[in-house]
Amino acid sequence: MDKINVPEMFGTLVFNDKVMKARLSDEIYASLKKTIDENVRLDDAVADAVAEEMKNWAIENGATHFTHWFQPLTGVTAEKHDSFITPATDGGVMMEFSGKELIKGEPDASSFPSGGLRATFEARGYTAWDPTSFAFIKDHTLCIPTAFCSYSGDALDKKTPLLRSMQAINRQALRVLKLFGNEDVKCVRTSVGAEQEYFLVDADIWSRRPDLKYTGRTLFGAMPPKGQEMDDHYFGVIKPRVSEFMEDLNEELWKLGILAKTEHNEVAPAQHELAPIYSTTNVATDSNQLTMEIMKKVADRHGLKCLLHEKPFAGVNGSGKHNNWSVTTDTGVNLLSPGKTPYENAQFLLFLCAVIQAVDDYQDLLRLSVATASNDLRLGGDEAPPAIISVFLGEELSAILEAIKNDAPYQGTEEVKLKLGVHSLPRFFRDTTDRNRTSPFAFTGNKFEFRSLGSSNSIACCNIMLNAAVAESLRQYADELEGAEDFETALHELIKRVIKEHERILFDGNGYSEEWVQEAAKRGLSNLKTTADAMPHLLDEKNVEMLIRHKVFSKTEVQSRCEIMLENYVKTVNIEGLTMVDMVRKNYLPAIERYLYRLSQTTVLMRQVSPSVKCKYEVSTMERLSELTDEIMDAVIALEKNLAEFKTIDDIFKSSAFVRDTLIPSMDKLRKYVDEAEMLTSQRDWPFPSYGQLLFSVN
Ligand code: ADP
Ligand code: MG
Asked: Does 337 contact ligand 1 (Cβ within 6 A)?
């Protein structure tokens, strides 16, 4: 392979700051920069100038088309390609792209889910340029990151509320920072680094599994003799085919300015992880969407299939995504990093409290922000955090909060009662070795890591909720402290009170254990096990109120989103159910029958030759398989009946409850019998590749 020059290649397909600076006039650059950094409205002349240079740059780099790239509520990204080509008067063509085309697009919105929004308001939506996320080139197309709204201003995408939530936390954090005398801070941003897990399987074998093709996961499959129990895959040697894929993927991502940093094997066979270097939340969101897309594309090129489903294989660890989140000022201060001076420390503790309170007050919002049919299969197993949301702080920080709460001396480096704003916190070290992997929301030294996300989730959803909830804590604190007579005393009392009121959300123990489920129930923490349980809480009054107060969602947007997410849930499971019926009737039952025929033929023939033979294997296998075909038949008929009933329910809350209570259990039952039959049937007759063949297909 040719030697690659990473610095030279990095970001070559991105219209980034360096390119803008080099290509735009000083005046235009300064004005665009102001828009990016301070959210100032862009004027038309500037937009025209930017568009012209963007087009020239894109054409020089091989682009012929442009598209507004956006994130509809379905989870994938969407784009509608337009050509730069405009007919010229001399019969030839010109390559044109105006500021208007850059700023606003009008995709045919009718096929994107709107949860009744467009029907009631406007028939069409429009896309609006997000200048804070750089444009890039993909497949000879200039992609312009945009937000997607209806003409009445309702958000039809994930980016719009994300940007609003970033503004909300910015507004409230600035108020709080002023109280600490930070007059120079102009803007506060949240940063995210999203670690991405995925599976790689051989494309040929994949193509022989209709369930993987239609639903992204296997709906049947008995466990192979060797699973992940040896743990030899984790951080093991990366196989040559996989490492070629990773090299190629890195290159593609680097060209797009995405800093993919580490890649290693995960716990399950065929499972891997990619971690980027963190960036501003909306940029990180775009990057993660792009990463998922490029992963699939590059895998195809290597004769592989990249599975982003949360639980492609039952009984094998699923895939998640870790949302590493921090809050930073434009002056470069990470507000979740303990400081050196007493004042910085008090400020840190207040922001820490804001997060703790936010997670406690809005557990349900965080839970539902990661709720999908596929992630339900993963949460609460011995591989992913439970559906219960709690916060892990680590021993030292917990001890510090405990000391503050009780006005007790802290047994740290020096024995003093901590008076905030007066004393330094004892130095505590970032513990990078012994982290609690079972916690859904862990403090990791200078950031929080939310681990409940599924591998296919957009990170926008949880960051919208997280930003909004933390903005709400900060708003309350600012309201209280702005009016305080003595800031330091008020601050100290506030922090003490927050710790007392919200300590129930703190948990450092084993999140996977049954004791925790009981303990959490005693503490009154919510345990929303499925999407059908979680999603309706989006409409809880306290949640709607908070989201509206911070202008993250309007009432109608919240309602439509709840509906869309539940629709996604029921549609996903419905397709799975239909696929199961199809596979059972067309393939599994006929395959078992074929094998039964062979067994019975063999028995008859053998007895003809020698009447005394026992035919133990043939007879016992036949008997059990025959019982199983009866069970399978009953189960498939029951599932068909349930699928038919499902179609008649037109209320989304009722149908999602039906999916949870009836459809999923009847699918599980069918699967159980088929998986048992797999173990008894000859591999030659079994119609689909086995788990073993899938999981160990790549070398
Ligand atoms: P580890 O998982 O071993 O802690 P790192 O701390 O290096 O590894 O980072 C894990 C992920 O967190 C990476 O994607 C990284 O970019 C991201 N990250 C690191 N620091 C921050 C931060 N301050 N804010 C947001 N994300 C961060
Ligand atoms: Mg991690």
From this structure: no
- Ligand 2 centroid, distance to 273 Cα (angstroms): 10
pLDDT digits (tens, 9 = 90+) for 5-25: 888 889 999 999 999 999 999
Distance separating alpha carbons of residues 172 and 481, to the nearest angstrom:
12
> How long is the chain?
699
Residue 262 has pLDDT above 80, yes or no: no
How far apart are alpha carbons 63 and 85 in whole angstroms? 11
CB atoms within 10 A of CB 651: 9
What b/e string do you get for 114-129 counting C-beta neighbours within 10 Å, with b at 16 or more?
A: bbebbeebbeebbbbb
At residue 603, the 3 state secondary structure works out as helix
In order, the DSSP letters of 288-301 are HHHHHHHHHHHHHH
Q: Compute CA 277 distance to the chain's CA centroid, rounded to the nearest angstrom.
A: 16
Question: Rounded CA gap, 665 and 659, in Å?
Answer: 9
**Exposure of 31 in the CB half-sphere (CA atoms within 13 A):** 15
Position 188 pLDDT exceeds 90 = yes
* Å from CA of 666 to ligand 1 middle: 41
Ligand number, closest to the Cα atom of 284: 1
Nearest-CA residue for ligand 1 atom 11 is 193
Q: 73: closest CA among 133, 147, 141, 129?
A: 147
- Region for 626 from its dihedrals, namely left if φ exceeds 0, alpha if ψ lies in -120 to 50, beta otherwise: alpha
Token digits for 14? 């991105």
Task: Check pocket membership of 619 for ligand 1, CB cut-off 6 A.
Answer: no
14-18, 124-128, 190-194, 521-525: range with lowest mean pLDDT: 124-128
| Residue where the block lists tokens 């994107």 | 112
Indicate which atom in ligand 1 lies nearest the CA of residue 336.
23
If one residue of 169, 191, 278, 430 were mutated to test the ligand 1 pocket, choosing by the most ligand atoms within 8 A of its CB, it would be 278
pLDDT digits (tens, 9 = 90+) for 571-626: 999 999 999 999 999 999 999 999 999 999 999 999 999 999 999 999 999 999 99
What pLDDT is attached to residue 261?
Answer: 74
Is the confidence at residue 227, as pLDDT, over 90? Answer: no
Rounded Cα distance between 276 and 256, Å, is 12
Nearest to 84 by CA among 92, 93, 76: 93
Ligand in closest contact with the CA of 275 = 1
- For residue 281 and ligand 1, the question of a CB distance below 6 A is answered with no
CA of 441 to the centre of ligand 1 (A): 14
Distances (CA, A) of 253 to 70, 333, 454: 18, 28, 21
Q: Is 446 in the pocket of ligand 1 (CB under 6 A)?
A: yes
Average the pLDDT over 626-631 and give the result. 98
Index of the ligand 1 atom closest to the CA of residue 328: 23
- CA of residue 273 to ligand 1 center, whole Å: 14
Are the CB atoms for 224 and 692 separated by under 8 Å? yes
Q: Which atom of ligand 1 sits closest to the CA of residue 194? A: 14
Whether 445 lines ligand 1, by a CB cut-off of 6 Å, is no
What is the per-residue pLDDT for 118? 46
Ligand lying closest to the C-alpha of residue 278: 1
**Three-state DSSP state, 449:** strand
Q: 536 with 660: CB under 8 angstroms?
A: no
Backbone angles phi, psi at 595, to 5 degrees: -70, -40
Ligand nearest to the CA of 325: 1
Average pLDDT over residues 514-539: 96
